[in-house]
Amino acid sequence: MTGLLRPRSIGANRQRVDGPAKVTGTAPYAYEHPVPNPAYLHPVQATIARGDITDMRTDEAVGLDGVLAVLTPFDAPRLETGQDAELEILQSPEVHFRGQLIGAVVAETPEIARQAAGLVRVSYARRDHDVSLSADRSDLYRPDEVNAGGETDTRQGDPDGAFAGAARAVDATYTTPMYHNNPMEPHTTVASWDSTGLTIYDSTQGVHTMRQVVASTFGIEESDIRVVAPYVGGGFGSKGTPHANIVLTVLAAKRMAGRPVKYALTRQQMFSFVGYRTPTIQRVRLGADEHGRLVSLSNHVVEQTSRIKEYAEQSCEPARKMYAAPNRGTSHRLAPLDVPVPSWMRAPGECPGMFAPEVAMDELAQACDLDPIELRVRNEPETDPASGLPFSSRNLVACLREGARRFGWAGRPALARSTLEGGWWVGTGVASSAYPVHQSPGSSTATVRFTADRRYEVRIGAVDIGTGAWTALTQIAADALDVPFEDVDLRIGDTGLPAAAVAGGSSGITNWGWAIVEAARAFREKFGAGPSPGDERTATQPENPHTERFAMSAYGAQFAEVRVDTDTGEVRVPRLLGVFAAGRIVNPRTARSQFVGGMTMGLSMALHEESVTDERFGFVVNHDLAEYHIAACADVRSVEAHWLDEHDPYVNPMGTKGIGEIGIVGTAAAIANAAYHATGVRVRDLPITADKFL
Amino acid sequence: MIPFDYRRADDVDSAVATVTGNPRAAFLGGGTNLVDHMKLGIAEPELLVDVTGLPLDRVEELPDGGLRIGTNVRNSDLAAHPLVRERYPVLAQAVLAGASGQLRNLATTGGNLLQRTRCVYFQDVTTPCNKRTPGEGCAALHGYTRYHAVLGASPHCVAVHPSDLAVALTALDAVVRVRRADGERTVRASALHRLPGAHAERDTVLEHGELITAVDLPPLRFAANSRYRKARDRASYAFALVSVAAALDVADGRVRDVRLALGGVAHKPWHATLAEHAMRGGPATVDAFQAAADAELAEAEPLPDNGFKLKLARNMIVSALRGLAGEDAP
C-alpha cells in the first residue's frame, strides 16, 4: 500500500484557483510578462526540404530601419553540438526539412522583424528529398526502442500459425494521418540574457526540463538560468520537450546582450518545427475461435521519423495489453524521412495505436456475429498480457457495462445500415480506452513551509498547462497537511522552486502530488500539528514498490452515435459518451474538462484533422486553422464523461491514475465503428470524411 | 509584410480616385481576407483606403420590389434582414453557411464577393502560383486538390472561388453596381467572376480602382421558394466541398422557372445554365432533376483528389430541387 490519503479536499468540486485571473486577463502568459524594452524576433525558414545553404544575403534586411540583428548559420553564436540535432540550429548550412529554422531577424517591432525576414535572400544547393511514407519502403528500419521506453517488437507463441488456423479472422490495414498539436496559445518564448544570467518566460510543459536542455545546448550552468511559466495555454505534448524556437530565441537574446527578445510563433509556423504526431500504417490481424475468443492478435506498425533525430511512436502498446490472446506479435518499423522531428501529441502511441485494433475488434464482432461489447468481455485478460503481472485495478468491463447502460446500448440493431431517420443513416459504436500510469520516482521535489501569516506555502516547479493542476495540487496539499483548502498557497511554474517532472504522460498529479504528500508528511513528522512560522520541510517523490508487482493502467469505454447524410455523406456525431476508471478523481470539475476535452479531440481526429504533406515540396500545405480542420463548436454536440468510483491503493498515495490523455484514446475507433453501423461502409483510414460514403 | 499607409475614405468618388491613381493602393472592407494576405505576403498594398465608413450600409427596397444591398452591409446583418429572409431565403442561408459568426460580423457584402481563393498554394508564397505571380506555374495542378475545381479550370489555375454569398447572388441573377473614375457601371453577378483561362491573376472583371457600391436583387417572386445547401468537411467554418443555390417555380407538376448555381466547383460561382435549360418547362420529377444535373456535369474534369465532387454535386442538386418541389415530387 502507498498510504492512501483520507480524502476531504480531494474529490471536492473546486473551482479553478487560477480561474479569476484567467477570465479577467490578469494571468500572465509567456508573451505578456513585462520586460523592459523588448525586441522582437521573426524567423527565416528553409524553403527546400534537403540541401545546403550556399549563401544568405542579409544586407537588405539589415538596412531596414528598426532592424537590430540578423542571425544566420554563418554568424550565429555557437552551441554545444552532438547532443540533439533538432535543437542545434544555425550551426551548419545543412537543411534537413522544409520549414527548418535557418535564421532570425530581431527588430524594434514584430512587424519590422517580419518584413525584414522576408528580405533575407537565401541560396541553396538542393538535394533530392524524400518525405513519402509507405509500408513497402525498402529502408524501413527497426528502432532500438520506442517512446516511453517500450520494446520495439514482441512475440508470444505463434501468431502466424494461430491466425492461419483461426475459425474467425480479420486481416486489415488501417491508417492514421499526420496530426499537428495546436494549443490555443502558440509556442512563445521571452528571453533575456544579461550579466545576472538568462531568464526565460516560456510557454512550456516543464520549466526544469527546459532549463536542463537550454543549459546543455548553450553550455552554461543550470544555476545561471531561470525559466518561468505560471500559466500556459495548452500544450498537448508539443511543449513537453523544448523545440528549436526556444534555441533561436535564446541565440538572439545572447546576440542582443541584455535586451530581452520576444518570439511568438505564427499559427503557420506551428506546422513546421514544434513536433507532430507521425502518420501510422497498421496491419492488424485478429484470429478467434467460433465463440469469439482470440487465438492470435498482431499489429505491425509503420511510422515515420526524421533522419536527423529518431522518434518512434509506441503505437503497438494497446495491442500488447488490451485483450487476452495466447499468440501475439507486434512490431514498430520506421521510415527515415526528410521531415521535421515527430514528437508527443496527446496520448502518443496509445491514441493512434488504439484506433486500428479497436476497429478490428468491431470487424471481428461482426465476423463472429457477436455484440461488440460481449466480444470484448470474452477477451478480458486475468493478468496483464504484456507483463504477466496482476492488475493493480482494471475495470474495463465495468466501464463497458456502465457505458452501455447510460448510452442505451441495449436493443441496438445487430445489422449495419438498418436505421434511416430524416435523410440520415444512424448508427452507434463502441471502443475501449486505456492509458498507462506513468511515474518517474525521484523526478519531483516539493517544499512545505509554514509562513508568518500562519499559512502553508507549498512550492514545486510543476506547470499547469490548462489541466487544473493549480487547483488539484492545492487539494492534495490540503489533505496531505490535514488543513482546509483555503490555508494552502501553491507556488508553481518557476525553476526557482524545487525541481519537478514535465507535465506529460498524464503523470503530473502522480509525480507532483506524491512529492507534495511526502513533503507534507515529513513536515508533520518534524513539526507536528502546531508548527512555527519559518518551519519547512522538503521531500522527493519516492520509488513506488508496487510497480514491479502490478500492471497499472486507467481504462475506459467510449460510445458514439453517428449520423451520415444520405445525399452528401457528411458525418455528424450527435452523442459521445465515455465512462472511465482512472482511480480517484481529485477534482470532478477539472477532471470532467480533461475527459471531455480528450474526447472532443478524439472526435476531431476521427472526422477532421489531417496534415496534408505535398511530397513534391516536402511540407504540410494546409498549415493554418482554416484549412487544417479542428472540430468546431457545431461539430461537438453532446459529450458526456462519467467515471467509476475506483480505489487503487497501489498507484500512489492519492490513488490517482492520470486523466489527461485517456479521453482521446479510443474515441476515433468508436466513431468509425458507429459510422460503419450507420452505413455499412467500413472506413479504415482516418479522417472519416464525406467522400468516403458517396 | 510591408509598411502601408491607411486612409479613411470621405466619399465614394475620392476613394475611387485615390485607388485608381495608385496601382499599389487597395480598398479595405472588413479586412477579414486582405489583412491575412498582407501578413502572409500575398498582397502588398502601400495604401489602404478604408471604405467601411462610407454610407453604403443599408438594405433598401427598390420600386420594382427588388432589394439594394449596400456594399458595407455586414454579412451578419444581411443574413438577418427580414426582407432578405422572406423574399430570398437562399441568400440568407448562403451567408449563414459561410465563415464563422465573428467573421460574418466584420465581413462586408462587397468584400465577401471579392475574397480570394483558399487554394493552399495561393496562400503560401513559397510555392508557385499563377494567380499570385503570373507565369510562375500552378502548384495545385499536380498537388493537393480536394477543394479544387471540376468545371471550367485551365492548366494555369484550378482554384475555386470560396464565397457562398456569390453563389446565391448568381442564382438570383443579382446585379453588381460598380463605381469607377468616369462614372458607374453594372455587372451581372454571374459575370463578375471569371474563369481562369490564361489569366488566373484576374479573379473578376473589375479594373483596379473600381469599387462595388451595392448589389441589386431583382424582383423574383419564386425566390421565396429557394434554398442553399452546402456540403463541407466540418459543420461550421469550412469552405464548401460543393454548394448548391436553387430556386424553383413549379405549377401543375411542371417547372415554370428554375435558378441553379453551384459553389466549390469552379473559379467562379457556377451558373448551371445547362441544367436550368434542361428543366425549364419540363416535369418537376426526380428523374428530370437527375438528367439536368447530369447535363450540367457532363463536361466536368475532376482532379485526382476531387472526383467525389461530381457525385456530391449531383446528389445535392437533386436533393435541393426535390426539396423545393415538395417531398412528394415523383
From TrEMBL, chain A:
> Record's SUPFAM superfamilies?
CO dehydrogenase molybdoprotein N-domain-like (SSF54665), Molybdenum cofactor-binding domain (SSF56003)
Compositionally skewed regions (Basic and acidic residues) per UniProt: 135-145
Top-level taxon of origin: Bacteria
Identify the stretch(es) annotated as Disordered. Answer: 1-21, 135-161
- Write out the entry's keywords from A to Z: Molybdenum, Oxidoreductase
Domain (Aldehyde oxidase/xanthine dehydrogenase a/b hammerhead) ranges: 24-128
Q: What is this protein called?
A: Xanthine dehydrogenase family protein molybdopterin-binding subunit
Please report the organism this UniProt entry assigns to the protein: Prauserella endophytica
Automatic annotation (TrEMBL), chain B:
The record places domain FAD-binding PCMH-type at 1-222
List, alphabetically, the InterPro entries matched: CO_DH_flav_C (IPR005107), CO_DH_flav_C_dom_sf (IPR036683), Diverse_Substr_Oxidored (IPR051312), FAD-bd_PCMH (IPR016166), FAD-bd_PCMH-like_sf (IPR036318), FAD-bd_PCMH_sub1 (IPR016167), FAD-bd_PCMH_sub2 (IPR016169), Mopterin_DH_FAD-bd (IPR002346)
Q: Does the keyword Secreted apply?
A: no
| PROSITE patterns documented for this protein | FAD_PCMH
What is the protein's name according to its record?
Xanthine dehydrogenase family protein subunit M
Which Pfam families does the protein's record reference?
CO_deh_flav_C, FAD_binding_5
Enumerate the UniProt keywords alphabetically.
Oxidoreductase
Task: Identify the species of origin.
Answer: Prauserella endophytica
